[in-house]
Model the fold of this input.
Amino acid sequence: MNKRFINGLAALAVVFSGAGALPTGTFGGFSLTANAATIVDSGKCGDNLTYTLDSEGTLTISGTGYMDWFSMTGKNDSRPWSAYRDDIVKVVIQSGVMSISDFAFYGFNNISEVTFAETVEYLDRTAFMGTDWLEAQRKENPLVIVNNNLIDGQTAEGNVIIPDSVEIICTGAFSGCKNLTGVTIPNSVREIAARAFSSCRKLTSVVIPNSVKSIADMTFYDCSSLESVTIPDSVTTIWQNVFRDCTNLASITIPASVTSIGDYTFNGCSEGFTIKGCKGTAAETYAKNNGFTFIALDGASAVPGDLNGDGAVDVDDIVLMQKATAGWKVAESVKKAADLDGNGTIDVEELVMVQKKAAGWKIVLG
Done:
């Protein structure tokens, strides 16, 4: 449907409705006056969301909750407004709407204005990819941020500092960015979504803030210049393919907090790739199961009470615990492991707990 047809519908709706003022000019020999835009199309786009399109090309999304996910495979385009690709020029997202689906307005070139309610908490750059609006936002600032979501950084260059107002780096935000060499991520960021930095082939180093709990699928996939990654002990999950094909990444240190590492995470990294971490952790298990070199850090173990770092609590640990409790000179790693409550001292109560653990009692250490 084109603009001429939409305008024609608007004029006919005015003539036959019998309500409101008529547009200016003549129609059927009568003098006409101006009239407000009329509704051209409407429908559902979520369990509790609806859309309306008016004759001026404004699409309004209203209701509460999340937008439906739409498919765009071959000739199948399930977006309910797909027939108006050339006609929609403005999108209004009203209060109550919580998400805008991926590719929702992809390829709608003529959209030049978008209004977001503060309730929108999920969207990414694909939602408005190819629109005049996104291009204008990029020219204004290479970091396009909506409601604390960084949705696009495609045109960023050099070492980028992300503002501390950002909470989410959205799916594919920097994916394929040709001139990104470094990035500073603030502690305000709680989520780095899938493919956020994939194929950023000039990116050399990254420090993940301690506000992040997981690293999503393919986050740094194909970052072929990446040499240094710092993972904080707030991270518990590293999903699949995260560092796949990072051909210059020779080693990585994985903290004991990480309990799950996905498939193919380090496939295609530098020859002789090495994983460093604590004994008895997911890092060691992953390295051994996937044929990577593992280097234990200072003999430390993630198993509380495992003073010698062999991954188990047994009589050898009891002996070391007795020595530490008695004030004998022991390695710093042993002292640290022996201080179960982290109060800086090693006492008889901690010794008894290790003895019970070694004996098979079901107790929690640390």
